[in-house]
Every structure is written in structure tokens, then in C-alpha cells.
Amino acid sequence: MNEMTKGNDIRVMLKEAFTLFAITLIAGLMLGFIYQLTKDPIAQQEAQAVQNACRSVFPAADSFELTGLTPTDAQAAEYASVGVTIGEVYKALDGSGNFLGYVLRSTSSQGYGGNIVLYLGVAQDGTLQDVSILEISETAGLGMNAESVLVPQFHEKSVSKFSYTKTGAAAEDEIDAISGATITTKAFVNAVNCGLSFALDEMKGGAGNE
Predict the structure, then answer these.
(1) Is residue 184 a part of any domain in this protein?
(2) Per-residue confidence at 10, pLDDT binned at 50, 70, 90?
(3) Greatest Cα pair distance in the chain
């Protein structure tokens, strides 16, 4: 290969490298521009989705304010023993900004098909307002019936802890299990119990003053 051929090959390589660099740079700039353009609308949509999810379990509230509340190490260990973690906690506020209770996210990792993620609304007097399912991947026709079978049973219950039964609920703190889906029922009830326990502990410790 003569010197001229070598020189041509080098120029071709440099040209291709420059072209690739230019394409990468332009693509990066375009992605950055699109991100900046869509960042605020996406954030607003996500914030609205959270407000809607909170309102579904605490309809009496006018707004919801994210707190910095997290379980203590002892609480976290207790919840983890049944496969539950507590996520974001929100204050439920009325139109004048007065504290009404809490909305919190509770996740069980022990569902039959994976995580079961719930939102719970707990009023200042300890009443569980409602429960809403954010994520569930259970068996169709069995665990996926949690929305219709389990959720309504938690509506406006004033108890500190729930248990489930296969023989028909006979008390305020008993929940009828989904037929053929005991694992789902157990995970669901554990998620509710841990979320409720955390909220009640916070109420005792001076709710609304965080």
C-alpha cells in the first residue's frame, strides 16, 4: 500500500469519525431539548396522579402534602418480617390547611404474582377511610379479584388491626378471604395492617406537626 492510499484511508476514517461525532452530538442536544421541554408537564401530570390517588382513599380532603415521615428501624424491621415496606406519606388537609389524617403507600412483596402496592387513607381519629390498589399482578379470576372482594371490606373501619378468615367475617376487624387466593389475601391484609399501624403510631406522636 503506497503513501497516497494510506493518506486516503486516514482521511476516510477521520471523516467517518467526525460524522459519527456530529450525529451523536446532535442527537444528545435534541434529547436534552426534548427533556427540558417535557420535564415540567410530566412532573405536573405525576403530581396530579398522586393527588388523585390520595383523594380516592381520602375524599374528604382538599389537598395532600408530602411529608418526610419514614418508619423507625424497629418499625421497618417489624414490617419487613411480613414482607411490607412503607413508602411516601402525605398529610391530608382540608380547604383551610387543617390536618385531617394521612395517606400512605404500603407495599407487600409477598403477593402470589409479585408486589401488591396500596394507598391507605387514615383519618385523625384512626378510622381507615379507604384502600386503593396501585399495583397488582395476581392470578386472573383469583387474586385479581382483590379490587372487588377485598377493597370494599376496609371502607371506614375503625380498628387497629385486621385478620382474614375463610369462614365468613363475623367481626369488624375480620376480612373475608378471596376464595382460592389465600396468599394474595394474606399479603393484602399485611400491607394494610402495617400501613395502618404506622399511621396510628404517628397520630399518637403528635400528628400534623411534622
Answers:
(1) yes
(2) confident
(3) 95
> What confidence tens digit (pLDDT) does each residue in 33-54 have?
766 766 666 667 766 777 788 9
20 within 8 A of 27, measured Cβ to Cβ: no
Structural domain including 162 reads 63-204
Q: Which of 59, 62, 122, 65 is nearest to 90 (CA)?
A: 65
Query: How many domains, the chain?
Result: 1
